């Protein structure tokens, strides 16, 4: 298949079920909300080494937040519900409670919920107080600056982790330009995030390792241009000298699919020579996103 000047490989991205949550952080200014959100989502690129995957979904104005202040919505994903609950408590407690002027709210109506503010309230050491509004409980925790307001329970849903596009180009500059264009096209999709720095990763991995036991993941050698002449199973075509990947997590399959569709078109317009996706033969992940279905 071809899209503009790019070859689109007839394959699919294999993604996995992950539990996801939406966190709404507000603050006195948009700047302080952004500080908290960046810390909240930091070091959360891959469950392989970070226990969770997270990213900023979008900025919010006062008309979109529970307390009428500027805010940020962020998404956080983990392999299971218990793990997601732990990461929410850790990250809200360390990155939002600590940040001046912030408050933190659940951003997702869901049948399943986990306790976040109800656990963080113990930081109040007995001086915390709660109030129920419209059937939802909120905790006020005294801090030196004033009070930290946090919702007690956060909704969680079964989402999708690991949707992906792999972009191959003739050189590093072109690969970066095409992948940046793809990431920019994907970001406006509500309900999806790109967890890697700038939305892009250069270190795509495979399961396990060829030489070293105990290694959970290792370099994806078949897509390393510098190894093309050294391995028998290289997937890097002649004339390609740089490969980059975008990983997409979403609260449901549709946002992941839409983000991939937008990214595919943008990369093809911006210099990609070939666009493919990573999978494990279809035997591991619950979700398969076929590139042929995303080509107009």
Short description:
With 296 residues, this protein is an alpha+beta fold. 23% of the residues lie in helices and 35% in strands.
State the main characteristics.
single chain; 296 residues; alpha+beta; Alpha-Beta Plaits; 2 domains; 15-stranded mixed sheet; two-stranded antiparallel sheet; 23% helix; 35% strand; elongated
Order of helices and strands: EEEHHEEHEEHEEEEHEEEEHEE
From the spread of the alpha carbons, the general shape counts as: elongated
Helix-and-strand structural type: alpha+beta
By CATH, the topology of the largest domain is Alpha-Beta Plaits
Percent of residues in helices comes to 10-25%
- Over the alpha carbons, how many angstroms does the gyration radius reach? 21 Å
CATH architecture of the largest domain: 2-Layer Sandwich
Q: Work out the strand percent.
A: 35-45%
Counted up, domains total 2
Spatial gap, N to C terminus: 11 Å
Largest sheet: 15 strands, mixed
Mean pLDDT: 97
β-strand number:
17
- Classify the oligomer: single chain
Provide the low-confidence segments as ranges: none
Would you spell out the secondary-structure blueprint of this structure?
Layout: E1 2-3, E2 6-8, E3 12-26, H1 30-40, H2 47-50, E4 53-60, E5 71-78, H3 81-96, E6 103-106, E7 112-115, H4 117-120, E8 129-133, E9 136-143, E10 146-151, E11 153-169, H5 172-186, E12 192-193, E13 205-207, E14 217-219, E15 242-250, H6 253-269, E16 274-276, E17 287-290
Parallel strand pairs: 2-16, 6-10
Antiparallel strand pairs: 1-2, 3-5, 3-6, 3-11, 3-17, 4-5, 7-11, 8-9, 9-10, 11-15, 11-16, 12-15, 13-14
């Amino acid at each position: 298949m071809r899209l503009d000047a790019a070859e689109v490989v007839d394959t699919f991205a294999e993604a996995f079920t992950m539990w996801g949550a939406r966190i709404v952080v507000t603050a006195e200014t948009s700047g302080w909300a952004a500080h908290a959100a960046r810390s909240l989502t930091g070091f959360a690129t891959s469950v392989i080494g970070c226990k969770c995957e997270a990213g900023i979904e979008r900025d919010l104005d006062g008309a979109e937040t529970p307390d009428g202040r500027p805010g940020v919505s962020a998404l956080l994903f983990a392999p299971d519900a218990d793990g997601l609950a732990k990461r929410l408590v850790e990250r809200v407690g360390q990155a939002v409670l600590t940040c001046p002027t912030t408050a933190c709210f659940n951003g997702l109506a869901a049948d399943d919920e986990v306790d976040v503010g109800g656990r963080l309230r113990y930081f109040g050491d007995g001086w915390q107080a709660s109030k129920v509004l419209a059937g939802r409980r909120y905790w006020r925790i005294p801090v030196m600056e004033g009070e930290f307001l946090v919702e007690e329970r956060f909704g969680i849903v079964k989402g999708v982790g690991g949707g992906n596009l792999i972009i191959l180009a003739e050189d590093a500059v072109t690969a970066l330009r095409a992948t940046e264009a793809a990431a920019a096209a994907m970001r406006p999709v509500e309900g999806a995030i790109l967890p890697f720095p700038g939305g892009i990763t250069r270190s795509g991995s495979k399961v396990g390792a060829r030489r070293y036991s105990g290694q959970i993941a290792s370099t994806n050698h078949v897509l390393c241009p510098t190894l093309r002449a050294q391995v028998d199973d290289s997937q890097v075509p002649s004339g390609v000298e740089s490969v980059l990947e975008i990983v997409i997590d979403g609260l449901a399959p549709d946002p992941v699919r839409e983000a991939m569709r937008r990214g595919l078109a943008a990369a093809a317009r911006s210099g990609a020579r070939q666009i493919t996706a990573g999978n494990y033969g279809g035997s591991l992940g619950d979700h398969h996103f076929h590139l042929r279905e995303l080509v107009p």
